[in-house]
Design a protein that fits this description.
Chain A is mostly beta strands. Chain A has no helices and 11 strands. Chain B has no helices and 11 strands. The interface between A and B is medium-sized, with 24 and 24 residues.
Amino acid sequence: EDKVVQSPLSLVVHEGDTVTLNCSYEVTNFRSLLWYKQEKKAPTFLFMLTSSGIEKKSGRLSSILDKKELFSILNITATQTGDSAIYLCAARSGNTGKLIFGQGTTLQVKP
Amino acid sequence: NAGVTQTPKFRILKIGQSMTLQCAQDMNHNYMYWYRQDPGMGLKLIYYSVGAGITDKGEVPNGYNVSRSTTEDFPLRLELAAPSQTSVYFCASSYVGTGGTDTQYFGPGTRLTVL
């Protein structure tokens, strides 16, 4: 059965801290891994990763994929209160557009 | 472009009532999806569609039905509402194919409560 597991499930840090969110996957015919940020509304796209070892960056956020060990990490440096959200990881399986989502990591950044 | 739109934003149903959640996209995406999200949980795929006239079940299809008569619209039907269907429902779309990406674009969600 295809599954995506995220850890930790929740995290509380202070502004300025660096956090690492983990995502492991077991997905048939894996195609890509996506990260989304969800505040009090719909998820918004952050990154899509298809190749191992190539880091994607956007400001203070970065992500990398390891296809051998079947995991991805999302790093956030110099966290801000605006980074508080649920971070969702999803893996695309096979030749369909279906995404299997993890349960999410709830990040709270305190001032 | 409006992107992905959903109506209604909120709805309260009584047990056994029926309703249709509407979803539309104006990005000419071929794939559309319905997810539900329970508190503290990730997204669970209910149904998806790879194009007009073609639908398939996701992880949690029981109690729901869908249709896709046009590329733009993908309504989700609840026939006999049950308290277990209390959730936030998200519709999403993506373009899958040559030149497309895996990125799914989400609607704003419909918060449904069944009492």
